[in-house]
Design brief:
Elements lengths: L10 E4 L18 H6 L4 E3 L3 H4 L10 E5 L2 E6 L4 E2 L1 H14 L5 E4 L11 E4 L6 E6 L2 H9 L4 E4 L6 H23 L2 H10 L1 H7 L1 H12 L1 H4 L1 H15 L6 H12 L8 H15 L5 H14 L3 H4 L26
Parallel strand pairs: 1-2, 1-6, 3-7, 6-9
Antiparallel strand pairs: 3-4, 4-5, 7-8
Helix pairs in contact: 3-4, 6-8, 7-8, 7-11, 8-10, 11-13, 12-13
């Protein structure tokens, strides 16, 4: 496929310690390969809530304690409660943030963690069974349920990472066309993303088509608002391997009459291997792409299903068939 020029840089909020500054509690900085790869393609916003409220670098660790059913941020070494200053910071930061397309936050952090933060009893020592979100990460999840929101730990999983990147770049492109204010851009967006949306949610794909078709009566502003809500719902869970296979078979129908029986068999064998979890999704996609280029299938060439995010990020996302992460 020709090299794709990306029309928009997603605006991504990323924890500062993930490669941007030595701001962890121990004064260290983490290196994250995905963050490094994304630097060429996204606009980063890089908060460090604990450093930003003045806790210092390095600093005594803080913990999340649960008091009367409420989370509080406690620093055992000093006996100080930093809940108030942290909540004020979170409110101010998110209010002033402007439009963004996603969040990539530090896992297990008492401030940025999304779901795996240790929670302690009121003495700050006794670990409560189970884990939860940090004060910053929890509010992000509450306010931005439709955006691409993950922690760096979960993004080591290729399926989750692929879904995160697809969602991030799709939402950024939608934000771009919403800002242009032309109905033709929305029609084009729907057309280019048809197979991607088919993989994610066929029912909502059809609903989005109806919304676009009715834009004359609803007006463009209302249409974009309605479309955005349904789009975010459609992208809420990654596609299953069965849905990906359905899209691959659909696309294969455009080229199957142009190739030899041996080539057809070769592709179908790889499709079965993907179904069984023995080869990644990208293998089947690349086979199809070679025929799309060879036979000049313009409709498929423009489909974002085949290039949902920059090629340079593709080698970080394999996607074997059998595993399901969205049940």
């Amino acid at each position: 496929m020709p090299k794709i020029e990306w029309p928009v840089r997603p605006r991504l909020v990323c924890s500062r310690c993930l490669g941007f500054d030595s701001c962890r509690y121990n004064g260290q900085k983490l290196s994250d390969p995905l963050v490094e790869a994304l630097e060429l393609f996204v606009e980063f916003v890089t908060p460090c809530p604990e450093a930003d409220i003045g806790l210092g670098i390095p600093r005594h660790p803080v913990r999340i304690i649960v008091h009367d059913g409420e989370q509080r941020m406690f620093q055992p070494a000093t006996g100080l409660d930093h809940t108030g200053s942290m909540l004020e910071y979170v409110e101010r930061f998110l209010e002033d943030l402007g439009e963004v397309d996603g969040f990539l936050l530090k896992s297990r952090s008492p401030s940025c963690g999304m779901r795996d933060v240790k929670q302690y009893r009121e003495d700050g020592q006794s670990l409560i069974t189970g884990r939860g979100a940090g004060l910053f990460g929890g509010e992000v999840a509450r306010r931005f349920p439709g955006l691409a929101v993950e922690d760096e730990g979960r993004l080591h999983n290729v399926e989750i990472r692929d879904h995160f990147l697809r969602k991030l770049f799709t939402l950024a492109d939608f934000r771009r066309i919403g800002g242009i204010g032309r109905a033709s851009e929305l029609v084009d967006f729907q057309s280019r993303n048809k197979l991607l949306l088919m993989a994610y949610d066929q029912e909502r794909m059809r609903e989005l088509g109806r919304i676009v078709a009715a834009q004359r009566s609803a007006g463009l502003e209302r249409t974009v608002e309605l479309y955005g809500g349904v789009l975010r719902s459609a992208l809420s869970r990654g596609p299953s391997y069965r849905a990906n296979i359905n899209v691959l078979q659909h696309a294969f129908g455009y080229v199957s009459d142009h190739i030899s029986p041996e080539e057809r068999g070769f592709f179908l064998d790889h499709l079965e291997m993907y179904r069984e979890g023995r080869t990644p999704l990208v293998t089947c996609i690349k086979l199809l792409e070679s025929w799309i280029v060879r036979f000049h299938v313009d409709y498929l060439r423009d489909q974002t299903f085949f290039h949902p995010y920059p090629e340079e990020l593709l080698d970080r996302c394999g996607g074997l068939g059998k595993d399901e992460y969205w049940r």
